[in-house]
Amino acid sequence: MTRIGVLALQGGFHAHLSVLRSLGHEAVEVRSAIDLAGVEGLVLPGGESTAQLSLLSPGLRAALDRLRSAGAPVLATCAGAVVAVELGWLDAQLRRNAYGSQLHSSEGLADDGTPIIMIRAPRFESLGPAVEVITSSGGEPVLVRSGALLAATFHPELADDLRVHKLAFGAPRRAFRSE
User: Fold this and answer.
1) CA distance 157 to 168
2) φ and ψ at 6, to 5 degrees?
3) Is residue 44 a contact partner of residue 84, using CB atoms and an 8 Å limit?
4) Which residues contact 103 (CB under 8 A, 6 or more apart)?
5) Is 111 a domain residue?
6) 44 neighbors 80 (Cβ within 8 angstroms)
7) Helix or strand or coil: residue 143?
8) Of 41, 114, 120, 160, which is the most exposed, with the fewest CB atoms less than 10 Å away?
9) CA separation (Å) from 78 to 2, 13, 47?
10) Are residues 39 and 3 in contact, defined by beta-carbon separation less than 8 angstroms?
11) Please, which pLDDT band fits residue 175 given cuts at 50, 70 and 90?
């Protein structure tokens, strides 16, 4: 994976760009269908899911659907997970702001030690049969996979831990140069 697009209509997309670049990917902001040229993966960031969905033009939505249908890896975090459900990309039911308001934001560790930062986080209420739980917290799923889509109810881009982005996109191939 080399070129990863980050939906940049609203929300916390800057942190994802930074993490992806630190992993060696070419990370680009996506605001229109044209911005998806050459993109091999996609991040749906946290923010306000209703605002993000309302800002999706029909052309951009169609281009995103084509990218997803082509099997490109997608990482959807917090509100991005809600967007993935609303777009029909993830067979799940979510409850928005299930862990409380912004005042109830928290940091902790998932059951496997993954750092989790919850900010007005959604909660998975139910998962379809093809959705696999990757990580839980207190027995509740917080990171799930459906094909090439990873959805997190937390913000991995805000932690000093790159495992979720690596799981979604791997490390880019580097050209071999002999010295």
Assistant:
1) 12
2) -120, 120
3) yes
4) none
5) yes
6) yes
7) strand
8) 160
9) 24, 12, 8
10) yes
11) very low
CATH code at 118?
Answer: 3.40.50.880
Q: Which residues lie across from 140 on neighbouring strands?
A: 137
Q: Within 10 Å of residue 97's Cβ, how many Cβ atoms?
A: 13
Q: Domain tally for the chain?
A: 1
How is residue 116 written in tokens? 């989790």
Using only C-alpha atoms, what is the Rg of the chain?
16
Q: Which two tokens stand for residue 163?
A: 């495992």
Residue 99: what residue type? Y
Using an 8 Å Cβ cutoff, are 93 and 125 in contact?
yes
Q: Which domain holds residue 15?
A: 3-169
How far apart, in whole angstroms, are the C-alpha atoms of residue 30 and residue 8? 5
Tokens of 105: 């934001």
Does the residue 177 lie in any domain?
A: no
Asked, for residue 178, whether it belongs to a domain, the answer is no
126 near 93, Cβ under 8 Å? Answer: yes
Any domain includes 42? yes
Instruction: Enumerate the active-site residues.
Output: 78, 155, 157
What tokens were used for 121?
């986080």
Express each pLDDT in 111-133 by its tens digit: 999 999 888 789 899 999 999 99
CA 131, CA 67: separation in Å to the nearest integer? Answer: 20
